[in-house]
């Protein structure tokens, strides 16, 4: 009804919207886009995967303009001379070719804008994939790596205890075997429960308490419901190794480690700082691997975002991970 308000009759509507000229323009425009699409397909074969983009732009624009001029000129000449009966169509050729060349310009401009956007997105995807691959390598390296310094210290403690109490030395050997058995058992596990991680610390602490006695203590304040959440295997052991390697431990400077979880999101591990004069670079590298391993799961950066130092307290903020069932 609205259309008929502008056109007094259906005949007038048909005359204006379905005349031969209008249908010709519609057909010409459709074929024009198909010709330009064919030009793009041919250029894709000449320049696969958008290589040599500058040459591609020049070639595609040139071939598109030539194809447009040839196609539009031939079609117009045939239509106006043989169907309409014009004797000369110079004005029509200039007008129509100008319009369609302009359309061809914007058509190709739109195509190349999509190419550049796609390239930019592919670059970002590639960077993210490279970053992800690097994080996976860091994760695997962290999981499989055995700290030789920790092993040597453990063996020194056991050897020293052999001269004092063979039964006690046997217990220490058993604790050391539990530590490495836990590492081997979880070699192919991406995550373990916080409860298992906390239990894995007991034999390590018993081993080193033989050396440091009351100067080494471990306090755990984690609710049972939180212990069902997950960590990367070996996380707490690696932090304990880091603390033992960087700290001066004596009767005057005891090492008291506190582990607590006040929320379901993070686990806090902290202890007072009494740094040795020389820091061991190898254990620092191991801690960097720990941070990178968690960055893989939390989509964070590969910096020490989980390690802080303030008011003489070293603090680790470790994210607690959840396994979501699909």
Report on this model:
With 326 residues, the chain is α+β, with helices and mostly antiparallel strands. It folds into 2 domains: 2-141, no CATH class; 147-319, Heat Shock Protein 90. The chain is 65% helix and 10% strand. The protein contains 10 helices and 7 strands. It has a 5-stranded mixed sheet, covered by helices on one side. A two-stranded antiparallel ribbon has the order 1-3. A hairpin with a 2-residue loop joins β6 and β7 (313-319). α3 packs across α5, α6 runs antiparallel to α7 (166-185) and α8 packs parallel to α9. It is rod-shaped and about 120 Å long. The protein starts with a helix and ends in a 7-residue tail after the last strand.
């Amino acid at each position: 009804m609205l259309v008929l308000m502008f056109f007094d009759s259906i005949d007038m509507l048909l005359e204006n919207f379905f005349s031969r000229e209008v249908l010709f323009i519609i057909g010409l425009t459709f074929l024009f886009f198909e010709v330009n699409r064919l030009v793009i397909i041919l250029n894709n074969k000449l320049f696969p995967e958008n290589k040599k983009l500058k040459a591609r732009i020049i070639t595609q624009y040139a071939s598109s303009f030539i194809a447009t001029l040839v196609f539009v000129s031939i079609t117009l000449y045939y239509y106006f001379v043989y169907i309409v009966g014009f004797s000369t169509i110079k004005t029509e050729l200039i007008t129509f070719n100008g319009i369609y060349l302009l359309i061809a310009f914007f058509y190709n401009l739109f195509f190349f804008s999509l190419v550049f956007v796609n390239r930019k997105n592919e670059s970002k995807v590639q960077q993210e994939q490279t970053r992800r691959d690097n994080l996976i390598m860091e994760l695997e390296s962290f999981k499989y790596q055995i700290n030789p310094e920790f092993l040597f210290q453990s063996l020194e403690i056991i050897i020293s205890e052999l001269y004092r109490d063979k039964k006690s030395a046997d217990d220490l050997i058993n604790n050391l075997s539990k530590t490495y058995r836990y590492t081997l058992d979880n070699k192919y596990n991406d995550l373990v429960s916080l409860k298992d991680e906390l239990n894995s610390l007991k034999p390590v602490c018993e081993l080193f308490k033989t050396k440091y006695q009351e100067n080494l203590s471990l306090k755990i304040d984690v609710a049972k419901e939180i212990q069902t959440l997950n960590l990367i295997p070996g996380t707490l052991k690696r932090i304990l190794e880091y603390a033992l390697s960087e700290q001066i431990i004596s009767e005057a400077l005891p090492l008291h480690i506190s582990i607590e979880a006040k929320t379901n999101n993070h686990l806090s591990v902290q202890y007072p700082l009494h740094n040795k004069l020389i820091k061991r670079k190898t254990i620092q590298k191991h801690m960097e691997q720990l941070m990178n391993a968690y960055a893989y799961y939390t989509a964070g950066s590969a910096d020490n975002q989980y390690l802080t130092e303030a008011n003489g307290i070293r603090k680790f903020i470790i994210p607690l991970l959840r396994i979501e069932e699909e």
